[in-house]
Design brief:
The protein is an alpha+beta fold. It has helices spanning 13-22, 44-50, 71-85; strands spanning 2-8, 29-35, 60-69, 93-99. It contains 3 helices and 4 strands; from the N terminus they run βαβαβαβ. The longest helix has 15 residues, at 71-85. The structure holds adenosine-5'-triphosphate and magnesium ion.
């Protein structure tokens, strides 16, 4: 099992939901977030204009999508998300992955992949 945390543009949430539905993810947890990446929150144009100048950090609204999936679903999900969300512009988002030791469905007591 792996946890995928995807930080995306708010207007791409419906696309990601559709992908996760198509990939038969067992569930998802969505939260709102503020963040910045390597451009420290500057827009595409601002990045070009301000290159080389010192800028302060600007936090932008983002959506955090957290899922835990079977190992075999990880790469297809990454591929589908990149297919749909990758543009020529900075700020498309990021996916962080980490191993998950176990999961328990509280209602039934199922463990591991069965609990997803
Ligand atoms: N290293 C990081 N640690 C934690 N969160 C991050 C990290 N990098 C990016 N994020 C989160 O992901 C969001 C989107 O990041 P973003 O896509 O701008 O990454 P980037 O590395 O700057 O890539 P790009 O050059 O394509 O913009 C950020 O607003 C932030 O919330
Ligand atoms: Mg960025």
């Amino acid at each position: 099992m792996k946890e995928l945390v995807m930080i995306i543009r708010p207007d791409r949430l419906e696309d990601v939901k559709a992908i996760l539905d198509q990939e038969n993810c067992g569930g998802m947890t969505i939260s709102t977030a503020m963040g910045c990446g390597t451009q420290k929150g500057a827009s595409d144009t601002a990045v070009k204009e301000l290159k080389g100048l010192k800028t302060t950090i600007n936090l932008l609204p983002k959506i955090r999508v957290q899922i835990v999936v079977e190992d075999k679903k990880v790469e297809p999900i990454i591929e589908a998300v990149r297919d749909k969300l990758a543009t020529d512009h900075v700020g498309d988002g990021k996916i962080f992955i980490r191993p998950i030791e176990d999961a328990i469905r509280i209602r039934t007591g199922e463990r591991g992949d069965e609990a997803l």
